[in-house]
Structures are given as structure tokens and as C-alpha cells.
Design goal:
This protein is mainly alpha-helical. Helix content is 78%, strand content 0%. The protein is globular.
């Protein structure tokens, strides 16, 4: 019987890696308090670096995830076909129903963020509760980053959909109540998990701390900085870490370097495609808003990425296939 420990890290204060994430976040919050102009000057550079070095690579190994989810049934043809179908479908949805597409993008992003954060929860017999916890965590995080920087967020939204969200301005005073509601719902759910032994005391305290730290990140840093720190450190690096730890059950020699080599080809391809599309848009002026084009490209990649990541997270490989991978890994060295 396989005696491998649970590969899913608990993203709380007891985890050494997570301490670095927390310290980096606190550092950015302190910079926002003491040197806000410096963050505003550095936000674009930091955003580009984090997206290129961490963000894009974290989604550039979906073929590896699909291979481990499907086992011997995996083929690159089926993987690429699924990716293209989902991407083309979402691009068409943006063309015909842009507001619905934005709503879907927000929902799947919230679920995806929550899933990577709370994957370790031990309530496997209540899948609906997992889904609720993922959506609540992700929604709270997105609201903290977006709504606590409403002036910057509004400029982007109004550029993407001119005048469409103007009626919402009269409800901006309700933002603290919405954030308070999401905060209390997350606390209530974590309390339920703790009392039912779905999370330990350390995990419970850590998640409560995370909720307030995320709020501080959204409140004291500019929009782009808050998004960069959360997406880069809290989400992308954590997702990479989960992937490496889980793959190591089947391939013990799979390392950070192995991940980087696997992610490099599709990362470069993504950069080339993004650059080409933006260049074509600049030449032909297909879309007036660069923000809209970025959201469309990002969402077209996000939908299939979330699909393959979810399958990878919920898949448990048969022991026979695990041993086969181990044997081939060791014999190839």
C-alpha cells in the first residue's frame, strides 16, 4: 500500500512556505502605508514580471495535469482539441454576450482561487460544501482587491463597458456591507469546518488571519499591486506547489526545475500569441480597449485551465499506474 503523505499543503501559518507569502504580503502593505507613490510607480513593472515569471507558467503545464488525470487514456490530440473548443467557445461568447462572459469569468475565477487555497479541507463526502467554500473564499478575495480600489476598478470597467455600470455607482456605499457579509460567511464556514474536524486549530486560526491580511492587501495597496501579489504569490505559486507535490507521488524526481522545463514551451508560445494579438489589434484597431482585449485573452485561457486543474485536483491515480510511473522515472535516470 502506498504510504505517501497527503501532498496537499495547508496554506496557513504553520507552513514554512506560507510564512514567506505572508511576510511578502505584509511588506507590500507596509509599503502601501509608508511609500504609496513608490508602489504606484513600480506596479506595472512588478505586474509584468510576476505575470511572465509565475502567472503564465503556472498555467502552462495543463497538458501534464491532463496526462495524470487521464492516465493511459491521455493523448495530446484530445488535450489540444478540448483546449481549443473551450477557448473558441468562450471567445465567441465574448463576441455575442460580453457582459455574461465577464460574469462567467468572475465566477470561475472565484471558484479557481478558492479551490487552490482550500484544497486541503477534509470534507470529501460533502462536495457541495467544498464548492460553497471555494466560491466564498474566491469572491471575498476578488471583492477585497477590486472593490477596495474602486476608483481604479471603475476606470477599467467603464473603459470596457462604457456607461454600462454607471447605475451601480449609487450603490457604492453598500460595499462595506458586502465585504462584511462575505467576511462573516467565510468565518462561519471555517468555524463549521473546525468544529466538524475538517480543519485543525492551526489551520482555522491561519485562515482567519488570511482573511484579514487579504483585506489589508486590498485596502492599502493599488489595484494592480494587490492583484499581482495575490495572483502571483497566493494563487500561482501555491498552485505550482500543489502540482509538484502531487506529481511527486507518481514521479518522485519531479522537481521545480522539472516543472520549469515543462512549462517553458507553452509559456513562450503564450507570450508570442499575446504579443501577436495585441500587435494586430494595434494595427487594425479591432478593439478600442486594451483592457477588454486582455480580459478576453486571459479568460479564453482561464476556462480550459480551470477545467484541467479541477480534474487534476480531484483525480486519484490507481496504485498500479502510480508504480508504473515510478519505475519508468527511476529507470530513465
Amino acid at each position: 500500500m502506498d504510504q505517501s503523505p497527503d501532498p496537499i499543503p495547508t496554506n496557513t501559518l504553520g507552513d514554512f512556505y506560507y510564512i514567506y507569502v505572508i511576510l511578502s504580503t505584509v511588506f507590500m502593505v507596509l509599503l502601501g502605508l509608508t511609500h504609496p507613490q513608490f508602489l504606484q510607480q513600480a506596479e506595472v513593472v512588478l505586474f509584468v514580471l510576476v505575470i511572465f515569471i509565475i502567472g503564465i507558467p503556472h498555467g502552462a503545464t495543463d497538458h501534464l495535469l491532463d496526462r495524470y488525470s487521464r492516465g493511459k487514456k491521455f493523448t495530446y490530440r484530445s488535450f489540444l482539441l478540448t483546449y481549443i473548443i473551450l477557448g473558441v467557445f468562450y471567445a465567441a461568447l465574448w463576441y455575442f454576450l460580453p457582459l455574461l462572459s465577464l460574469t462567467v469569468f468572475i465566477i470561475i475565477s472565484a471558484y479557481h482561487f478558492g479551490q487552490s487555497q482550500l484544497l486541503y479541507l477534509r470534507n470529501s463526502h460533502r462536495n457541495w460544501l467544498r464548492v460553497v467554500s471555494y466560491l466564498l473564499w474566491g469572491s471575498y478575495t476578488l471583492c477585497c482587491v477590486i472593490l477596495l480600489n474602486w476608483d481604479e476598478s471603475w476606470q477599467i470597467l467603464d473603459e470596457i463597458f462604457p456607461g454600462l455600470f454607471t447605475p451601480l455607482l449609487s450603490y457604492i456605499s453598500f460595499v462595506p456591507y458586502l465585504l462584511g457579509f462575505l467576511l462573516l460567511m467565510n468565518i462561519a464556514l471555517f468555524t463549521l469546518f473546525f468544529t466538524r474536524q475538517h480543519m485543525s486549530q492551526r489551520e482555522f486560526i491561519g485562515e482567519l488571519f488570511n482573511l484579514f491580511l487579504i483585506a489589508g492587501l486590498g485596502y492599502y495597496t493599488p489595484l494592480l499591486i494587490g492583484f499581482t501579489i495575490y495572483f502571483g504569490l497566493w494563487h500561482s505559486l501555491i498552485s505550482i506547489r500543489i502540482e509538484i507535490k502531487k506529481v511527486r507521488i507518481q514521479r518522485p524526481l519531479f522537481s521545480v526545475l522539472s516543472f520549469a522545463k515543462t512549462a517553458l514551451p507553452l509559456s513562450l508560445a503564450t507570450l508570442v500569441i499575446f504579443s501577436f494579438v495585441f500587435l494586430m489589434n494595434y494595427q487594425w484597431e479591432m478593439l478600442q480597449s486594451s483592457y477588454l482585449l486582455f480580459f478576453i485573452l486571459l479568460s479564453v485561457l482561464t476556462l480550459p485551465h480551470v477545467f484541467f486543474v479541477h480534474e487534476f485536483y480531484v483525480t486519484k491515480k490507481p496504485k498500479k499506474l502510480v508504480r508504473a510511473y515510478r519505475s519508468s522515472e527511476i529507470s530513465s535516470t
